[in-house]
Amino acid sequence: MALLEWSDALELGIPNIDEQHRRLLDTMNTLSSQIQHGKSGQGYAAAVQEMQDYTTFHFMEEETMMRISGFRHADSHASLHQKFIKETEEFAAIDVTNAPGKALELLLFIQEWLVDHILGVDLVFAQHYKESGGD
Ligand SMILES: [Fe+2]
Fold first, then answer.
1. What global pTM score does this model have?
2. Whole domain around residue 112: which residue ranges?
3. Is there a domain that residue 2 lies in?
4. Which of 66, 75, 82, 102 is positioned for an S-S bond with 71, CB 3.0–4.6 A?
5. How many CB atoms lie within 10 A of CB 52?
6. CA of 98 to the centre of ligand 1 (A)
7. 22 vs 80: CA distance, rounded Å
């Protein structure tokens, strides 16, 4: 449950971004198994942290590429990233040992957000980036 498989449909055709999106899904799947199998809650905080750290790294990379390539929606795209980071901060307040369902519900929400984001605004950026001569 709450596992999200990478699929070719998520590929944007920019190799480093695709690789980062794949790794981002991996961190979410690690978190999912910590929620479901980490009965003591040990490992949950670490998995949350890893997912947040990688998310932050990935968003910074994307935003740098947007600015370098003169993407005109860079600011609005970056504010969506900020909102997402805020959502992931909710994990810290969840008592995963007693309420694993809450953590899974939040995970499901952010996974859906990520897929919508990749297939929506990231796709728009990818088209711009390729047209501007990148990759
Ligand atoms: Fe993005």
1. 0.93
2. 12-131
3. no
4. 66
5. 17
6. 33
7. 19
Which domain CATH number covers 26? 1.20.120.50
**Counted domains in the chain:** 1
1 in a domain, yes or no?
Answer: no
Please give the chain's pLDDT, 135 residues, in tens. 567 888 999 999 999 999 999 999 999 999 999 999 988 888 999 999 999 999 999 999 999 999 999 999 999 999 999 999 999 999 999 999 999 999 999 999 999 999 999 999 999 999 999 999 876
Instruction: Establish if 89 belongs to a structural domain.
Output: yes
Residue 34 CB-density burial (10 A; 0-12 exposed, 13-18 middle, 19+ buried): buried
- Report the separation in Å between the CA atom of 38 and the middle of ligand 1, taken as the mean of its atom positions: 30
* Residue 125 token pair: 């950026």
